[in-house]
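Hello,

Our lab assistant flagged a job as stuck in the queue for most of the afternoon. It eventually completed. Since we weren't sure the result was trustworthy after the delay, we are filing this so someone can double-check. Below is the sequence as submitted and the structure that was eventually returned. Let us know if re-running is recommended.
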Amino acid sequence: MANANRTLKELTTPIAVQQPLCITYPTEAHSFELKLGILHHLPKFNGFGTEDPNLHLHDFHMIITGMKPDNVREDHTKVSSFPFSLEGRAREWLYYQPAGSMTT
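-- returned structure --
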């Protein structure tokens, strides 16, 4: 009965260490490590009404294509890096997407 004392928000909020289940990673992809340099240069999107999501995706694409590791497909780099470009409400949105709904 550990859940009896938790609030509704605590019960519905995803565990922070859990990977977004909505992203389906390519099965044929090589194992690779995301370098801090890539993560540091990613544009950040919070989901504010004043932010342009299309501009964020354009900037994200430009960074990934310019800094992707050798011998790693671009789409694998994108799906692995995309969650790190979201913050706040935008990251919460990602966690509530249906499982397996993002493949590219």
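-- support follow-up --
The delay was a queue issue, not a problem with the job. The result is valid. The chain has five helices and no strands. The CA atoms of residues 39 and 81 lie 7 Å apart.
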